[in-house]
Description:
InterPro entries: Pep_chain_release_fac_I, Pep_chain_release_fac_I_sf. This is Alternative ribosome rescue aminoacyl-tRNA hydrolase ArfB. By secondary structure, the chain is of the alpha+beta class. Helix content is about 45%, strand content about 15%. It has a 3-stranded antiparallel sheet, covered by helices on one side. The longest helix has 20 residues, at about 110-125. The mean pLDDT is about 90.
Amino acid sequence: MDIPKIVSELNYKAVRSSGAGGQNVNKVSSKVVLSFALDKSEALDDIEKALLISNLSSRLTNDNILILNCDEDRSQLKNKEIVTKRFLQIIKNGLLVPKERKATRIPKSAIRKRITAKKITSKLKISRKRPDLD
């Protein structure tokens, strides 16, 4: 994964932010919308693309485009930085391959320990019963 090349492939669009902010909201386009076309990317090889498509399937559009928004700050530049960092983190997490789990057996000592603890608890509960006077 070539980070500078991926960042150069990103498309940014400035949009008017919604919500509170007074007159500033109506004048300034501070919200940043980032879009990244996975299929058209030259920075990722085919294996990485397939891995990202499978791992990020819920976040991608039908055309395999990842879209992220950021309107946390009043500054467009800061929002651009935030959304770029968020994008890179999503890509890094999407490329992680989880370790395969090795099947292991429960040790005999653990089984023995559990059964002896059950027997002790059972004897304790039996000793709490009222004695039979018949």
